[in-house]
Amino acid sequence: MKIAVMGFGVVGSGVVKLIQKNAPVIRENTGAFLEVKRILDIRDFDGSEFAPLMTKSFSDIENDDEIEVVVETMGGLNPAFDFVSRCLKKKKHVVSSNKELVAQKGFELLALARENNVNFLFEASVGGGIPIIRPLSRCLAGNRIDAIAGILNGTTNFIMTKMIMERTDFSSALALAQKLGYAEKDPTADVEGLDACRKICILASLVFGNHIYPEKVHTEGITGITLADMELAERFGYVIKLIAQAKKLEDGRLYIIVSPALVPKESMLAPVNDVFNACLVQGDMTGDILLYGKGAGSSATASAVVGDIIDCADNLEKRKFFGWKEEKEGQIEDYLNIPVSLFVRVKNEKDARQKVESLFNGARIIESESKAELGFITGEEAEGALREKLSDSGLTVLSSIRVTSY
Amino acid sequence: MKIAVMGFGVVGSGVVKLIQKNAPVIRENTGAFLEVKRILDIRDFDGSEFAPLMTKSFSDIENDDEIEVVVETMGGLNPAFDFVSRCLKKKKHVVSSNKELVAQKGFELLALARENNVNFLFEASVGGGIPIIRPLSRCLAGNRIDAIAGILNGTTNFIMTKMIMERTDFSSALALAQKLGYAEKDPTADVEGLDACRKICILASLVFGNHIYPEKVHTEGITGITLADMELAERFGYVIKLIAQAKKLEDGRLYIIVSPALVPKESMLAPVNDVFNACLVQGDMTGDILLYGKGAGSSATASAVVGDIIDCADNLEKRKFFGWKEEKEGQIEDYLNIPVSLFVRVKNEKDARQKVESLFNGARIIESESKAELGFITGEEAEGALREKLSDSGLTVLSSIRVTSY
Fold this sequence. Notes:
homodimer, 406 residues, alpha/beta, 11-stranded mixed beta sheet, 6-stranded parallel beta sheet, 13 helices, 17 strands
């Protein structure tokens, strides 16, 4: 089966190399004989062994009827959206690792794929090499999924792991991540939570059935998290992680949020360290399931792309029921209305302890090592009301972070 | 699509109930309309709402051409093997949760399924509701899998968790497991490791391509593990788990073994507690992947069965390349030839420490709390040679347990 790859960056070149290396194994294991016919990139790759396959012209792919599957690893919305749409219209399957594209245009592209009786698949867009999208859509087809919670961004998880393990601050940990190539020069999309937000939108759209757009999801990054937060949380038996979560509420609406959160040390999410990702899924039949692995990297992500390509080879004209419907207006509940429990760090001023005790009856209070600060965990209350109470408390609040029970 | 269920026990009744409860959701999510037409069981279920579907005669299923998928949840080899073979010959897809059947007869049944152009699927035979078989065969199709290590038996994991958490001995923990319904009256297959052995055989057959029979796999249970082992291992930073593992050696042969083993506290396998299972997969492209969830139970296992049924609905005449070949003679290396490192507990006799120091140069030695015993961890050496050295050492060896690096 002839394949074209659009975008010869980290993931795209990984796909080409993986196919070259493992084509015989893939053929033996699956019957699919994969062959890369064209690679689209605007850059020159004169020295590369793949130079003969390179093209700068999209029409070389669009108009080549031999090409049955197109891999999109360009990233970004433009021109990826235009190219992918045109490939689908030409009845070519498309496999994408581009989370921005799927999170913003998933509904349109899935509809277009359905109209043209081809697949639009994107296992690699969430969790790199971890099988997530397929298990969610297939193995769990007999389940009603109630909630998902994940560590979906490797860069921030690396930074947070370093902060607590090496007792260092955010900026030093970020600098290390950049040095090791785990964070980009401009780390905004990662550290501000946008990348994790796109991924939870993709998963929640798939699981709950309607497109969820990232801009509708309350998203907080990790730039405000300090080592002091982590150390105090540790004394309560928690670690702090950037958690992307989505949950079906009793009235059918959704709670969906991305933010740093305290995770109990006993949770399967707690030992997920460094650049690893994990996704916890709660099904009505299965109970808790955790899928864990490398969330990024050339080889891991390429392996997810190749899995999707093989699916296309095997399932021509299949996967009719894969995907989701258009956005449902008003589906997302305002996060401030949802009951949460907060971990709060305050200055240990003269009457701070009494204030906490009277406002948050029964809250466990722990002093920081220096005794200059107090930490406590509130009971569950609507977040808006809880934050109002805190701001009216007279306490000098240094930070307040959600507590999860996942 | 009409379905028959053979065996109305815990899993079989779970499948029937799940289909009844979630049929509309399944139809919406996958397009498959599932309907249970017949249930085979030798017992009477007069009061049951499913009584009209019950039959004691296999021929009611075998000769009903409307039935396209047969679910086998009887357990045991006989008559399951006969019935499943005959269903496949009648060109019915078969979905099984029966690990004994798959581990002993997988190769024959897969070949029979292929001949008759139908599926023989068994996601539920390993890891209950955790998606393992499908991710291994599909998502990882572009990978070369080098090793698998798992906690594949919930009963023993529950017992071992209780032992260390509640500081109790094996027989008390077993009694509790029996009381809670996690262990059978005759717990032999679980506590002696046979159940875990069947499951690793299924996974290793799938991943490495040739049938591996349980009787060829060195298997040790947990009956010899004491709280003293666990407490001393804890001081070295390890937990003890029943680990089933399979690994491709450099010469292409396999190391496959089921035994209690020390797992580092930092491992993703370490926090897998109670009846939960987990499977760690090492791929050349993906790196480490962990799949975690409930390894047993009616609903979780039923959900895996239903996933397979939906696959049959969607993929009539597909999955040609799913499965493995016949046994490869001499494929399994004698475990005594494989280098391992051992955790050893010995009596703290007069010159025990000197003996350890001279025989196992550089080994870290830790005293038990009572000081009556010493623990140490050896370097890596062929297991046979290492055990010989131990038995010639003059040390009073109380236990010796493999150490893993997973």
